[in-house]
């Protein structure tokens, strides 16, 4: 049997986003958080086939659009990438909205504005359109917060690090320069991957955050290494790690949200603050602290992230049962 998937490929500030516009599995009409569980249980081969090699690569990310269950949303999205079926993805949202609007996949109720049902909650998005193209996107992300500050962890090959655990749609270990880590300047991409893998493994035994409102969202699967900016217009620079060996080419949407929540939790940002976040390749997301928020017993923020994406092509992908590598592979 051969399955066909029609995809619109894009990138958000350098990070790939593959929007599955046709061929995605039919799922029951239910909240997207429930559909996410069904997808992971019964259809995760689709994610692996489209994200992993030979049809994808180590940093591949994507999304599948579904009809919204919530009446206050225009559509729902499942985020698929090499690291799994995520509750939320900021770069994925910016790329998905850009591709969906430009290619006519969705028709907003109000021009320039869409509400998206994600497994992490409702995400409101505004966008600017010029000449039939989406020029920029701003997503108003889910409530974000500093879960735990100054967690000390022994990392093989690095020594003891002090990290903060922060949530911006996914849980992150946030690392700033300190005695045993001098910053990004002395790190290669391979160094970032190796250190992140060891840090995540070390944290797994001592830290397992659970979202106060949804116990299905838990665990530290991402790391964000934060440093001073290179670009004069930026406030900070980062490298976001996810999956087995992926480094986000954008500054990371949920990563920037988690970073701002961490800075807010430590009194270094206030409501109304702007935070221009620079990626390893120099692209920038403009973050803003829009308002205060409560997440269970925690105080946090409502962040917004501004960025851009570009559609780079149409892609019809075949997944043939005769292919020994039909469901993809990863080299570890």
UniProtKB/TrEMBL annotation:
Catalytic reaction list: trans-4-hydroxy-L-proline = cis-4-hydroxy-D-proline
Presence of keyword Isomerase: yes
Keyword annotations from UniProtKB, A to Z: Isomerase
Statement: the UniProt record of this protein carries the keyword Glycoprotein: no
Source taxon at top rank: Bacteria
GO molecular function, one term: 4-hydroxyproline epimerase activity
Entry coiled-coil feature ranges: none
Family of this protein: Belongs to the proline racemase family.
Protein name: 4-hydroxyproline epimerase
Species, as recorded: Rhizobium ruizarguesonis
